[in-house]
Structures are given as C-alpha cells and as structure tokens.
Specification:
The chain is of the alpha/beta class. The chain folds into two domains: about 200 residues, Rossmann fold, CATH 3.40.50.2000; about 150 residues, Glycogen Phosphorylase B (Rossmann fold, 3-Layer(aba) Sandwich). It contains 14 helices and 13 strands. The protein has a seven-stranded parallel sheet, sandwiched between helices. A six-stranded parallel sheet has the order 10-9-8-11-12-13, with helices on both faces. The chain is globular, with a radius of gyration of 21 Å.
C-alpha cells in the first residue's frame, strides 16, 4: 500500500493539528516499517522547507513542493485541481489533514475532522477555514472514501451534523507523549504555576480564565502565577492588555508558542483548560500523562478525555472555575489523587492503537473507492 499523508500543518509550529498529524504519521510508519507499506508525507510552502532529519524522524519519505500553501489550497478546495498525480505523486491512499479532500485521479481519499467549530461558530474562524470549510465540508464528507476523527465526540458530530454513516468514520484518538523525566508519578511542585496551553482565540475562553484567576487572587493572594502558553490571535488583544493592569500585572505571563513542552509542563502545578469547545483537548492528555492534575471545561470532548481524573466545570461559571482552581491548589491529597488517576487514564490512550485504526481506515477507503468505481 502506498500512503500519502498531508503534513503541512506540522511544517512550522506544531500546534494541535500539526502535533496530531506528526505523531500519527510517526506511529503509523513505525508500525508498518517492515510490511512493505510505503508511507510518504506531503509538504508545500513557498519559503519553508522541512527540516533535514524529518524523513528519519518519521520513518517516512518526504515529498516537498515549492508551492504557496494558500494558492494550492484555493486550487484544491475550489477547483479540485491539480490532482496529486500531476504533481508527480503516485499513491493508493491520500489522507488530508483537514475536512476537505485532496484531489486525486486514482488514490482513495481520506479526510480528517478535528472538530466542527467552523460550522458552530464560523465568525470565530479565519482565512480559508472561514471561506471554504462551511461551504464544502458536507459535500466532501459525503464523497470521502473514509473519514478519520480524533475523538468519539467529534465522530458523533460528523455523523449527526453531516449525515455520515458511522461505519465510515474511524476514531483515531491521540496518544500521550514519551516524556524524558515526567510521568513517573504525580507531579505537584510547590513552586509550580497554573498552566494554560492553547491558541489564544475565542473558543478557548481565556477571558473567563482571567476573571476566575482574579477571583482566586482575591481569596488567595499567595496563589501561584498563571502562565498562558499559545500563539495569540486578534481575539487575544484585550486579554493581553489586561496582563499589564492590576490585579493581573506581575501574576500572569504570556509566553507564546512553546516548542519545549516537557520544560513547560515540568514547571506546572496544574493545567487549566476552560474551552467552550474542544474536538479532543491534547493538553489534557499531555498533563495527565505527566502526572499533573487538571481542571477542564465540561464541554466538547474534554469529559471523554479527562473522565473522573480531574475537575470538570461549566466554562461560563467564573466562580465555579475559581473554586475548582482553589480546591486543586489547596487540597494536596485530592490533587495527588487526581494526578494518580490521570496517569492511569492516560495509559488508556495509545498512538499505536490509533495507527492500527488508521490502517483499517485506509483499507476501508481503498475498498470503498473500488466499489464506487465498479
């Protein structure tokens, strides 16, 4: 089997989608290194090139084209051209990292759904996601030979919202990282900070987090600092402006995108993720696998990921969020128990299991493609 996987979201900063695709490719290629499966990743950019050691790291071939991403996506999404074969690529399966098909004359086509936020709140999205996804996702989901979803929650949304038969959806949930030092037991450093990880955009609910942290400071002036790790968007301007004013000045720090995740988690006392919607919520799994207790919203896929291994709160209840943070910071026995349960729960997720499911998706896609052509 010749497999081509879209690697473009991981070419630069590996945030959520990029991190997911990078690790899924690596797990899949490793699992099929000796059975004759040819795994290749596709990258394109006018100025960014893949790092020299990428092929070795992924155990996959790297096919790189000097094509502007926005221009190529416009052609692929709106004109369904050029097919991969005209780019000199032969494959049995082509796997898009997003919900829209990559054109192909012969290869079976697989798409990936990380969430349906582009349908539920299109005004909060940007660029081609706003332009193309709401208009095309339904049709492309119907035409895809197989669909990959990152959680049962996302799969259920695709089934209900886009009318896709459940048998065509394959749930490939992420696995935890391979930490160098973390994950050997509960991690509750006395001088640790509260950690938020995620792109600073509307659905991440950062404003409510800052409100809750302000309430926490009213009750606990000695509360640990709050660290916001993530790339800012236009939504972030009023939140970042608040960091220079009391009571948040000197207590909340924005560090931007942080590529060294282990160093970031190593300094954390707890993770807080109050998002109003998450297709999966990778930081929750990362924190659990590192032995760090978690406070998360009871929305989206977060209850599916966290289960009973932490505190789930209404993201719109600022007082409730502040109370959850206070309990996790002041009740050491409870926090340690949550961390221990998180470590156990994290072991229920596996990249190898995701890779096995992905192989089934590819086989089903090829069979569906042949059946449609027949």
């Amino acid at each position: 089997m010749r497999v081509l996987i879209d690697y473009r979201p991981a070419l630069r900063e590996r945030t959520g989608v990029g991190e997911y695709m990078h690790n899924l490719v690596r797990a899949y290629a490793s699992r099929h290194a000796s059975d004759g499966t040819d795994v290749a990743v596709f990258t394109s950019s006018w100025k960014d090139r893949p790092p020299p050691g990428l092929a070795s790291e992924l155990a996959a071939r790297v096919i790189d084209r000097r094509l502007p991403v926005r221009a190529l996506n416009y052609l692929w999404h709106r004109m369904e051209w050029p097919p991969i074969e005209t780019l000199g690529i032969a494959a049995d399966v082509v796997h898009a990292a997003h919900p829209l098909l990559i054109p192909a004359r012969h290869a079976a086509q697989v798409v990936t759904f990380h969430d349906l936020f582009f349908l539920t709140a299109p005004d909060a999205t940007r660029a081609e996601v706003r332009r193309d996804y709401p208009a095309l996702a339904h049709e492309h989901a119907q035409r895809a030979d197989a669909i990959v979803a990152n959680s049962r929650y996302t799969a259920s949304l695709v089934e209900r919202t886009l009318g896709v038969a459940p048998g065509r959806i394959h749930v490939c949930s992420p696995g935890p990282p391979d930490w160098r030092t973390l994950g050997r037991g509960p991690h509750l450093p006395r001088d640790g900070y509260l950690l938020f990880i995620g792109t600073l955009e509307a659905r991440k609910n950062v404003g409510a987090l800052l409100d809750a942290y302000s309430h926490l400071l009213d009750r606990r002036p000695d509360a640990p600092p709050l660290v916001l790790a993530g790339k800012p968007t236009a939504d972030a301007a009023p939140w970042l402006a608040r960091l220079a004013r009391k009571p948040l000045s000197g207590r909340v720090r924005h560090v931007g995108y942080a590529p060294d995740r282990e160093a970031l988690y190593a300094g954390a006392r707890l993770l807080v993720l109050p998002s109003r919607d998450e297709g999966f919520g990778i930081p929750v799994l990362e924190a659990m696998s590192a032995g760090i207790p978690v406070v998360a919203a009871d929305r989206g896929a977060l209850p599916e990921v966290l289960g009973d291994a932490g505190l789930l709160v209404d993201p719109d209840d600022v007082d409730g969020l502040a109370a959850a943070l206070e309990r996790m910071l002041t009740d050491d026995a409870f926090a340690r128990d949550c961390a221990a349960r998180g470590l156990a729960r994290a072991r229920e997720f596996s990249w190898d299991r995701a890779a096995a499911t992905l192989h089934g998706a590819y086989q089903a896609a090829i069979a569906n493609r042949r059946a449609r052509r027949a």
